Amino acid sequence: MDIRLLTPDDAMLWKQIRLEALLGFPQNYLSSYEEEQQRTPQQWQDVLSQNLIYGLFIDGQLISSVALSPKTLVKHQHKGEIWGVYTKPAFQGKGLARQLMKHVLEQAQKNLSLCYLTCTTTNQGAFKIYEQLGFETYGIEKNSIWVDGQYYDEYLMAIYFKE
Asked: Rounded to an integer, what distance in angstroms lies between the CA atom of residue 39 and that of residue 35?
């Protein structure tokens, strides 16, 4: 197992796993498969250049990914948003997402005082992992996501490194 920061050279690998996540679990993501499949190769590379996206590899295959976007506004430079968390279904339940998230949070706390994320309330597996890692729920956004004629609520969660 290898965890590393993805680079623009990994764009097509990340595109595959990202589109798989959006297609298989549309209620768990703000972006849609239809929107992201239209990205050009350069746009996929740009996303990797503009964010810190980590991948967990097994035998050279990208199995899991987590994105961290440190905020750039002066008054928000102490924060980072975590998004796009996904592990291939065949590898779920093995603690890999937890390991990858722990790595991302270790990197984040070097420069940030908090990270935040949203989690669809129907995604209890992810919610439990976030709680175990130390994330606190500070609210619920009702009707946050609209997919296939149905609303989904989202937990608003944060982890605080420095108070």
From this structure: 8
